From TrEMBL, chain A:
All copies of domain ABC transmembrane type-1, residue ranges: 15-197
PANTHER family: GLYCINE BETAINE/L-PROLINE TRANSPORT SYSTEM PERMEASE PROTEIN PROW, OSMOPROTECTANT IMPORT PERMEASE PROTEIN OSMW
SUPFAM superfamilies noted in UniProt: MetI-like (SSF161098)
Major subcellular site: membrane
Stretches that traverse the bilayer: 20-41, 53-75, 132-160, 180-204
Family: Belongs to the binding-protein-dependent transport system permease family.
Keyword terms of this UniProt record: Membrane, Transmembrane, Transmembrane helix, Transport
Biological-process GO terms, alphabetical: glycine betaine transport; transmembrane transport
Protein name (database record): Osmoprotectant transport system permease protein
GO cellular component term of the entry, any: plasma membrane
UniProtKB/TrEMBL annotation, chain B:
Molecular function as annotated in GO: ABC-type quaternary ammonium compound transporting activity; ATP binding; ATP hydrolysis activity
Database matches in PROSITE patterns: ABC_TRANSPORTER_1, ABC_TRANSPORTER_2
Enzyme kind, highest EC tier: translocase
Domain of life: Bacteria
Database matches in InterPro entries: AAA+_ATPase, ABC_transporter-like_ATP-bd, ABC_transporter-like_CS, P-loop_NTPase
Protein name, UniProt field: ABC-type quaternary amine transporter
Organism: Lentzea albida
Xref: SMART domains: AAA (SM00382)
Signal peptide (UniProt feature, chain positions): none
Amino acid sequence: MTWIFENWERFWEVTAVHLRLSVVPVLIGFVLAVPLGWWASRSQTARAVLFPFANVLFTIPSIALIVITPVLIGVKILDEINVIVPLTVYTVALMIRSVADALSAVPGNVIAAANAMGYRPLRRFLTVDFPLALPVTIAGLRVATVSNISMVSVGALVGLGGYGQLFTEGYQTDYTGKVLAGLIGTVVLAVLADGLLLLIGRLLTPWARAGR
Amino acid sequence: MIEFRAVTKRFEDGTIAVDELDLAVEAGTITVFVGPSGCGKTTSLRMVNRMIDPTSGTILVDGKDVLTVDPPTLRRGIGYVIQQAGLFPHRTVLDNIATVPLLSGWDKRKARTRAAELLEIVGLDANFGKRYPAQLSGGQQQRVGVARALAADPPVLLMDEPFSAVDPVVREDLQNELLRLQAELDKTIVFVTHDIDEALKLGDRVAVFQTGGHLAQYAKPTELLAAPANDFVASFVGRDRGYRTLTFLHAEVPVHPVATAKIGERITVEDWTLAVDEQNRPKGWLSGVDGEVEVRESDLISGGSLYDGSTLRSALDAALSSPSALGVVVDEAGAVTGVVRADDVIQALAKARAAGEVPK
């Protein structure tokens, strides 16, 4: 703890990087996963292709993916893109299934009723299907966010990675305080982000808790 | 108003859901499509608002071929009530009802005002408006479903087994409510059900569908009961069809006086005596007691159904279900006015038959 107070500025700087490297992939991944998940919820073929592919992507160890990304996309080794891309891949892999399951779980008679009322497809998706899929989607988003916050540290291997840098530095200089600071930062960040998403979810879906 | 001309629906797997259907639904009436599952009744209904398109044939609504109208536009002009209500769980009751007006571009305030009006029309309290569907009972949800279908005041209402998921008591309430609404609103209603009793009760005309998408008979309920077109219709209408015919007869049945006693009164019971409350409403029967006794609610033999002067069926049922074989007759306030006997009902039926009032 003392390290954090003595190096306040450095700690904030690292926190900001960590937050950026974990949240940006969640946002991009989410935007990509919604149409893909929608597609998977509509077509058996899409499901049969996307789900196994997503599973394979998710089984690639994060270390391997982060080390190999600069080679694959050809950017400088220290560019943040090298962490953002692999984490986006994980987010998409995780969220496709959440979004697809969430959309498939919208009751059939509600969709039939919406069609019978005269909804056109896009408006129906935006105002009926998607809002009803939100509780499950947000649950998936919470998992993706927390897992990203924990994985960002691996980026330290390519010289990036927010708190991950504190781990490597602390390890190399045999300074436990630094490692501990990174650990506390990661946990606090994960808990806060998870709580924030939980809160947003509750505010967006007041109906989900309307019981008898 | 709605016309099916040689309409056939063949699904991709080759099954014929509807086979050469010719049928005209009159404006301002309730037409019920009834039949076992897989008979094509729901498919036929859904072809009216293009939830399903026919393989061949033409469907006209108000003289216009539905296939020439863009489906969303067509559907906004046709009310639809779906099984189990199908309300939007994420919207309040008021917003659910306002769905079609908002889709049709009404402004929000006007749509809300209209929704509040409809809530009242279907018999729900104004404070239901702010609740979510999950906070309503099945019967209340279905009332909201009907209100939602009526919101843009469409001339045509399609109802797809709307009352099948609620318990029998609530179902009867909803059926009576629909008849009351229809008397006021005069819509053209197509109603799908697998329940023949519901069909006979609600339908001005009933279309009986047979497995394979074949229309077996299209007739008034009384005709269906009196002269089933074939064995399928006869068996579907059921063994009790002679008894059911009584539902459609409103003949005069003589009402006899009956001995009554108020709860708490001391009386000597000679014959069957009907115990009543302060408002003269029936509470139960007394019989076989010696000497003077006080009428106590706990000693009463519970009564049968009540005859409210409506149909011969309810008169006969009141007599048959009563422990004294005397059917209790009540007025609109529920007060006892006398009793009817089963033989009198049979005689009234014979008279009606002689007068040619019973369809042959």
